[in-house]
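Our preliminary data section would be incomplete without showing what the modeling component actually yields. Below, a chain of 209 amino acids is followed by its predicted structure, encoded as tokens that our downstream tools consume directly.
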Amino acid sequence: MNLPSQWMEQAVNAFAKLPGIGKKTALRLVLHLLKQKKEDVDIFAAAMLKLKTDIHFCPNCNNISDLAGTLCTICSNNKRDHKLICVIESLRDLIAIESTNQFFGEYHILGGVISPMEGIGPEQLFLEKLIEKANSGNYNEIIMALNPNIEGDTTIFYITKKITNKQLKITTIARGISFGGELEYTDELTLARSLATRRPFENYMQQSE
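Predicted structure:
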């Protein structure tokens, strides 16, 4: 792609690094920004920069928090059920579940799943805090809401083996979500029903064997 300016080319290449953005789409975005007022572009650039400089992570659940070392808006909400944890892989899954308006407990974002093929082990996930909470006796139930695939099942199995609190109820979301599917692409009704009809982890494992 031959462009009349090296600065335009740099901007196009930067946009093209985003997932799902090709060179043609990147060029359209750059041309759009060129038409905007400088003030609007400054606001856009500042917002992107703040994503890296001003966003922090909740020490309790690994969700996004605006202030370093402080709880996120979900963990600090007194109206949530703080004896119920929904274990998920990513922030995208949190957003998907929140959009159903059917879950009112806490979340715990792992930041990925165990995947030996990709070199991701338990030590690279936000697992230590989860195991600590699970064994603390302060929670009644943990919902394993990981994507229904081999990596998700492996991660669930690893977590349950680390939980020593026998009084803790461990459930998984119902298989209204097809095996190999992803939570963020699941429609809200199916996801809501999967949460509502969750079942004991032991039953899930028996069916998987």
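The longest strand covers residues 81-88. The helical segments are 6-16, 23-35, 38-53, 91-98, 128-134, 150-162, 188-196, 201-208. Preliminary results of this kind motivate Aim 1 of the renewal.
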